[in-house]
């Protein structure tokens, strides 16, 4: 049995299928983990959702997955470059959205944690799991529509244990689904979205700050890194290699650390 952890699909269904074939993935024998952002940007978002559900993949929610849920069930609007209309008009729309809305923010196995964007250096794995569980409970509760309507926003931009209500939930989602650069006091920056040279003054990539444990963290979200985490102070694997932007779709074999990639079928462009 192998566990394959695949980076952000972003609707790149043809590459997803090709990568599974290259891995000789067998759902009766192997396990499939997806690091979030299954949808948007690529042409096959609907097919990616259907494939992930059919294969019983273990997924975590990314910012684009949340965007789909907000647009479908929280009164949000699609953006100009979104490629989500096919999902919203699909006959199995509600079943797919139900499945997506049930996905967690973290998947943990021993000292390994999969999360879309990352976790704060001060958070233990158990704390990250518990905080992600708070968001999952809100997503599955009777007030999930109200939660989705109020989800997006950049404040608060620093975690505090005494945060409550939507401020608390929004901050957890922003860390786990949107984070790139943080300050030494763990303040979040939401403006810089490119490579490491785009760091604001006083900020650095979250993975360049040490942790108190020996956690192994698997994340996506940051296509501009192209899978590289220079000067990382922790054990970390960046799995978004920019398939939607003309890069590649990459899988990590969890048991061996081997990386397997399929080139994108899309023209190269900046994330």
Automatic annotation (TrEMBL):
Record's keyword annotation contains Iron-sulfur: no
Record EC number: 3.6.1.41
First-tier enzyme category under EC: hydrolase
Key words of the record: Hydrolase
Pfam family, one: Metallophos
Segment forming the signal sequence: none
Residues of the Calcineurin-like phosphoesterase domain: 1-138
UniProt-recorded name of the protein: bis(5'-nucleosyl)-tetraphosphatase (symmetrical)
Organism classification: Bacteria, Pseudomonadati, Pseudomonadota, Gammaproteobacteria, Oceanospirillales
């Amino acid at each position: 049995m192998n566990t394959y952890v695949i980076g952000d699909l972003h609707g790149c269904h043809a590459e997803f299928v090709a990568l599974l074939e290259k891995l000789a993935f067998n759902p009766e024998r192997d396990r499939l983990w997806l690091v979030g952002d299954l949808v948007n940007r690529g042409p096959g978002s609907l097919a990616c959702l259907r494939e992930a559900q059919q294969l019983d993949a273990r997924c975590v929610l990314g910012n684009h997955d949340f965007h789909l849920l907000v647009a479908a069930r929280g009164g949000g609007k699609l953006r100009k470059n979104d490629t989500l209309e096919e999902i919203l008009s699909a006959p199995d729309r509600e079943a797919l959205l139900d499945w997506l809305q049930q996905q967690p923010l973290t998947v943990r196995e021993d000292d390994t944690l999969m999360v879309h964007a990352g976790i704060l250096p001060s958070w233990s794995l158990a704390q990250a799991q518990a905080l992600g569980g708070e968001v999952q409970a809100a997503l599955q509760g009777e007030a999930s529509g109200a939660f989705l309507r109020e989800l997006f926003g950049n404040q608060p931009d620093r975690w505090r244990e005494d945060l409550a209500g939507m401020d608390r939930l929004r901050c957890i989602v922003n860390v786990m689904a949107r984070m790139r650069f943080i300050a030494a006091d763990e303040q979040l920056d939401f403006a810089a979205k490119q490579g490491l040279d785009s760091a604001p003054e006083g900020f650095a990539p979250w993975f360049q700050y040490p942790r108190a444990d020996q956690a192994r963290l698997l994340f996506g979200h940051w296509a501009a890194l192209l899978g590289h985490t220079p000067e990382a102070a922790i054990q970390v694997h960046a799995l978004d290699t920019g398939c939607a932007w003309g890069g590649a779709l990459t899988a990590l074999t969890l048991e061996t650390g081997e990386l397997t990639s399929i080139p994108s079928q899309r023209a190269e462009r900046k994330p």
